[in-house]
Write a structure and sequence with these properties.
141 residues; 8 strands; 10% helix; three-stranded antiparallel β-sheet; mainly beta; five-stranded mixed barrel
């Protein structure tokens, strides 16, 4: 593992951790508040004393929506009117919430999707042009 102390608190660093299949957050060493996506300044106490910490990857579904009219990127991955997908907000056991693709739930029956469902982090690889990139997702525990 790369030393987390040498990475800046940026989207690029966050994406590097995702590529290594790690869900990392920023934690304030002054007040203990977690930030995800990571921030260089604590939203709670405004301190800049932040550290990278790996999350447990466990959480629960806090909110969701079913996407039928997909953005171009997701259409390129095969999603759309005939193949909708679930996108949601996941509240991690450590407290922060993050938006992600939710796997393992039937988007054609949203009435069966339950807020509070236990989830675990997953990482999906999608083609971006000629390259493959890792994206954050969660699936049923």
């Amino acid at each position: 593992m790369t030393d987390p102390l040498v990475k800046p608190f940026s989207a690029a660093a966050f994406n590097q951790y995702l590529a290594a299949h790690q869900l990392m957050a920023a934690r304030c060493t002054d007040c203990g508040m977690w930030s995800l996506p990571p921030r260089a300044i604590c939203p709670g106490c405004r301190s800049d004393h932040m550290e990278w910490v790996e999350t447990s990857g466990k959480g629960k579904l806090a909110a969701f929506t079913v996407i039928y009219i997909a953005p171009t990127f997701m259409i390129e991955q095969g999603y759309g009117r005939d193949k909708p997908y679930v996108s949601g907000i996941v509240e991690l056991d450590e407290g922060p919430r993050i938006s992600a693709h939710i796997l393992g739930m039937d988007p054609t029956h949203p009435e069966e999707i339950t807020i509070g469902t236990p989830l675990v982090v997953d990482f999906v690889e999608y083609k971006v042009g000629e390259k493959s990139q890792t994206y954050l997702a969660f699936r049923l525990r």
